[in-house]
Structures are given as structure tokens and as C-alpha cells.
Amino acid sequence: MRTLFSIIFQQFDMVIKVPLVALLAAGIVLITTQMGIGNRKTRYLFGGILFIAFFATMIAGLVLLTTPTGILLLEICILAFVASIIVFAVSYLIDLNYDHKPRRERVPRERQFKLPKFSKKKN
Predict the structure, then answer these.
(1) Contact 75, 13 (CB under 8 A)
(2) Are 78 and 18 in contact (CB under 8 A)?
(3) Nearest-CA neighbor of 95 among 51, 35, 32, 39?
């Protein structure tokens, strides 16, 4: 158990980077959705760009594996992979909860709440 904690404390910067990148990626998608910037395709496009960055840095990192630059590129590769998976997951969950119809059309007529005081009287 002591060795596990020593490994975590030695690699503490990486332990912190991964959740921060995941929260940042999810936050960007949520903020752009709330502000109305873009549409469904642009949310997935952001994840696609991160996935392309993942492959590019993975290939470059594996080519330069024995150099310090290669190790840095592999670290960026891991962060880009995590961010792309988070962006795809958050975009999918937003699409599941997003209804394209106005509220009035979504609720069936017989299930709408009726107030006798405000309803129109039929003559």
C-alpha cells in the first residue's frame, strides 16, 4: 500500500491533469451548448478534432519514444484521448435530453394541466 501511495505522489501532476482536462472538455461542451453556439454537429466536431490530435500525438510519440519529447507527446496523447471520450459522451447525453419540438407540441392535449379560471368558456 505504501508503494502505491509513493507512485501516486511521484506522478501527482499527471493524476491531477487527467480529471482537470476531462472537466475542462465537458465544461466547454456544456457552456457552448447553453450559449447556443453551434449545433449538434459542432459538438461532435470538437470531439473529432481531439481524437485526431490523439492519433497524431500517438504516432509522433511512438516514433520519438526514446526522447523526452516523445514522452511528452505520449502524455498529450493520453490527455487528448480522455478529452475526446468525455466530449463524445457529454455530447451524446445532451442529444438524448434535447427535444427539437417546442414544449406545447410535446405535451399531448389530454395531459395538459387545465385551470378553470383561465380556460375559455364555450358558449
Answers:
(1) no
(2) yes
(3) 39
Q: Which residues have CB under 8 Å from 85's CB, separation 6+?
A: none
- How confident is the model over 11-28, as a mean pLDDT? 87
> What is the number of residues in the chain?
123
**DSSP 8-state secondary structure symbol assigned to residue 59:** H
Q: What is the pLDDT of residues 48-65, one digit of tens each?
A: 999 999 999 999 999 998
CB burial of residue 32 (10 Å; 0-12, 13-18, 19+): middle
Collapsed DSSP state (helix, strand, coil) of residue 16: helix
The answer to whether 87 and 43 are in contact (CB under 8 A) is: yes
Give the Cβ contact number of residue 77 at 10 Å: 20
Contact 61, 79 (CB under 8 A): no
